[in-house]
Prior knowledge:
It contains 20 helices and 25 strands. By secondary structure, it is of the alpha/beta class. It folds into 3 domains: about 35-165 and about 360-410 and about 445-510, Rossmann fold, CATH 3.40.50; about 185-350, Valyl/Leucyl/Isoleucyl-tRNA synthetase, editing domain (Isoleucyl-tRNA Synthetase, domain 2); about 560-700, Isoleucyl-tRNA Synthetase, Domain 1 (Orthogonal Bundle), CATH 1.10.730.10. The longest helix is centred in the last third of the chain and has 29 residues, at about 620-650.
Amino acid sequence: MANVFDKSYNHKEHEEKIYLLWEQSGAFAPSKDSQKPFCIIMPPPNANGDLHAGHALTLTIEDIMTRYNRMRGRKTLWLPGADHAGFETQVVYEKELERQGRSRFGMDKKALYDEILSFTLSNKENMEAQTKMLGASCDWSRKKFTLDSDIVKIVYQTFQKLNNDGLLYRGKRMVSWCVKHQTSFSDLEVVDREQTDKLYYIEYGPFVVATVRPETIFGDVAVAVNPNDQRYAQYVGKEIEIKNPIGSLKLKIIADEMVDMNFGTGALKITPAHDPNDFLIAERHNLSAVDVIDQYGKLNEKTGQYSGMNRESAREAIIEDLKKMKLLKKIEDYKHSVPTCYKCEKILEPRIMPQWFIKMKPLAERAIAAIEQGKIIYIPEHYKKITLHWLNNIIDWNISRQIVWGIPIPAKLCDSCGDGFADIENHIITCPKCGGAVSQDQDTFDTWFSSSQWPFAVLHYPNGEDFKTFYPTDVMETAGEIIFFWVARMIIMGLYATGDVPFKTVYLHGLVLDAKGRKMSKSKGNVINQLDLTEKFGTDALRIGLVVGNTPGTSLALSENKIKGYKHFANKIWNAARFVLSNTAGSDGEKPPLLTSEDQKTLDEFAAAAQDITYDMDNFRFYLAAEKIYHYFWHTFADKIIENAKTCLKADNERDKVSSRHVLRTILETSLKILHPFMPFVTETIWQEMHRGKRMLMVEKWPT
C-alpha cells in the first residue's frame, strides 16, 4: 500500500475526483430500496454572490445529517435550491451599476430585470459549484430556483387562496419606507437603532409639545393628552389654533390612553401620516392624515418655503424660524430608538401607502397550536418560546415591494377607486367595485413570501410523489437569526396551504465569527473566506472544524489555526490507514476463530464508543459525536492501539498477529464509517483504496 498512499494526504489530488464519483453513481438520489424517508430542504442561498462561512456551516451540518441517515438505510433526500432574493439581490446589483456609473432609476424595467436575471443565474451556477466543493451530497437532479415556473405557480395559487379566504387585503396603511431604495418593508426588515437626538419643545397655543421631528409640524391634525391627565382635562374636545412658520393650523384636542403623561409635557402632537403611533391614534379618533414628506424624504408643496428640502435640512431651518417666532421653548438631548433600513442604515420614513397585507393573526393561531402540541421540536429548545412570543404578538404582513426584481404580484389596480384585486388568471378587465379602468400592479412579492412556501412548493404540492413521500420534511436547519423572517413563516404557510407542519424538527445554528469572536464584515476586514481555507487545508478540515465545539444556537469563532489543526487530523487518518492496510494485506476482514482477550476487550470498548456516538447523532449532538470520534481515532486508535500492535506484528506468535490484524482493520473500517459524515473526502478516498473501487463508503451501512 505504500506505493498508493503518499506520506501525507493531498486533498487537492482527491476531492474533485471523489465528488465526481459520488455524483455519477446516482447515490445522491433517494434509494429505491429504502422505505422510511428522511428529507431536508436546503435553505436556498441568495444567488447574488459567493458562499460565505455561514453557508459553509449550514451545508456541513445538513450534509452530516444527510450522509448519516443515508448510511442508516433511510430513503434520504436533501433537495438543493437557490433564492432570487428579491430586494437583497437588487441592492447588490445596484452597487454593480454604481461601479459602472449607472443607476436603476430611469432604466427600462424589463431591461433591468433581464440584467439582474443574467447576473443571478451566473451567480447561481458559481454558487452550486462552491456547494459541491464543500462536499454536499444533495440530489442535484431535483434542484430548484425560487423563480422556476412551477414554484411561481404555487406562490400565485397561495396568493389567490389567501384572497378567497378573506386573509388578503390591499390597504392604505402605514409602512416603513426607505428613501434610498424606494421600497416599503415589513416590520421584520426594520432595524431599531438607538441614538441621541434633540427633543424640541414647541409652543402650541395653550400647550407646549415635545418632538424630535419639527419638520412634520405641517402635517399635525390634533394634540393628544392622556384622559387621566388633569392638567389638560379642560381642553379635551375643543379646538385650538396654533402658529407655525408658514401660517396657522386648527387642531383638535383629543384624549387617548396611548399618550404617556411623563413624556415631555404630556401633550403630544399628532401627525398621522408620519408616525406609526399617531396613525393608530388617528384611526381610533377618525382623524385625517396630511402627508408633508414625499417618497424621497423631502418636504412637499404643503410646507411653503421648505418645499424641496430634505428632512434634515428642513429640520434645521424650521428650528431657526421657530426661534425667531419665539415659539421654541427649550431643547433637550433625547436618547431613543429610530427605525432604519437594514441594508443602507438610513432612517426609514413612515408613510401611509396602499400595500398588499396578509391577516396574520388567524394564520398564527394554527401555528401556535401546532408548536404547543409538540408537532415541531426546536433545537435549542429556547427558540420555541421565542417563536411563540412573536406569533402571539404578530401583526399583518406587508408583502408588497416596489422593486423590479422578484415575482410580480398577480393583481390589478383600479385607476379610479384605488382598490386592488388578486388576478392570477389575468381576466379582470374593469374594476369589480366601480367599473373603472384597471392596470397591472407593478409591485413584486416580498421574497420571504415565496420562500415561506419553499418546503411544499419544491416537493411539487399537492400531487407530486415527492410531496406524498417526504412531506412533512424531517429537519429544517438554518441560522437562528432568520427564525421570524423564514422559519416561523414557513410553519404558518405550510399549515395554511397543506394542513400539516412543513418540518418536524428545527435545528438552529448561530453566527460564524472571526477568531476574536467578532461578527465578520468587509468594513472590519475580518471576513474569512471558507474557499481559501479549503484550498489551503482541505474541505474535510474545514467541515470538522466548523462542527467540533459548535453547540446549536451559539456562535462559533472560526480561526485558521483551528482548521489547520484538523488538516493534521486528516493526515493522521491517512497515515493510520496506510499502516493498517500495509500490515493487513490479504486480510478479508473476517473475524478469526479466536481473538486474544485483550483484542476482544479493545473491540468491545470500541463498539461501546460507536454506540455512544450513534446516540449523539440521533439526538442532533453532532458537535459531541465529532469530538468523540476525533479523540478516539487520534488518542486511542492511533496513539495506543496501533502503537501496541506494532510490537505484536513483529513477534512470532501467528495467532496473535491474526487477532491484531483483525482488530486494526475492523476499527479502521468502522472509524471511517463514523468519520464519513464529518470528513467525507479523506474517508472515501481511503475506502476506495481498501476495496479497490468495488464499494462506496457513502452508501455503506452505519456500524450500529
